[in-house]
Amino acid sequence: MPAYFAYLRVSRDSQDVANQRLWLLDYANAKGYTPLTMVEETASRSIPWRERLIGKLLLERTQPGDFILTSEFTRLGGSPGQVFSILESAAARGVTLIITKTQTVMDGSLNAQIQAAAFSMASMIEVEFTRARTREGLERARLAGRIGGRRKGSTGRLKLDPQRERVGELYQLGLSIPKLARHFDVTEKTMRKFLARHFPKNGSAS
């Protein structure tokens, strides 16, 4: 009797494997691949597969005729090279790999290898597009001042805050804004705003 395994992987603890688990269980029940043994781990897909649980599962626990189910190619590895290495090892051991989302059965045949090449490359491209969109979104948000760092101009004001009394003394002695800005290494615009906020025209500190 063959044994049936399901491999689930996430990159971070905050990610949820519930959707992967549900998808795999539904597929296994529909195909009669029961009982199904779940193998779950939190690990980056950039880690060599032999150092992850998929490596121990494939190389140590499976026997010829066994099945390993996973939701998509990117669960296996972070590059087409890693994926193909896993497929080659599975074929050599007589283990069938099934990618449930695309219903791709990797049984070592030439047709299966061609399918794997196409689906694996498409999966990697999709991941890269998603990463690019995320980076672009974060950059737009950062430039809009919503996240990541301080808004333009705030660094100088924070730099002046600890020296507020000294700024006030020099300002009341008649030192010009350009000279104050050079002395404290900030822009004239920043110095002008700082003085307007803390030292109104009447000369009293706020």
Name of the level-1 CATH class of the largest domain: Alpha Beta
Q: What's the number of structural domains?
A: 2
**Biggest beta sheet attributes:** 5 strands, mixed
Q: What percent strand?
A: 5-15%
> Number of helical runs?
9
Radius of gyration: 30 Å
CATH superfamily of the largest domain: Resolvase, N-terminal catalytic domain
The number of distinct β-strands equals 5
Give the oligomeric state of the chains in this entry, treating copies of one chain as homo and distinct chains as hetero.
single chain
GO molecular function, one term: DNA strand exchange activity
InterPro entries: Resolv_N, Resolvase-like_N_sf, SSR_resolvase
Protein name: Recombinase family protein
Domain Resolvase/invertase-type recombinase catalytic: 3-145
Structure description:
The structure is a single chain. 22% of the residues are buried. The protein is an alpha/beta fold. The chain starts with a strand and ends in an 8-residue tail after the last helix. The chain folds into two domains: 4-141, Rossmann fold; 154-198. Helix 4 packs antiparallel against helix 5, helix 6 packs across helix 9 (188-198) and helix 8 crosses helix 9. It has a five-stranded mixed beta sheet, with helices on both faces. 53% of the residues lie in helices and 12% in strands.
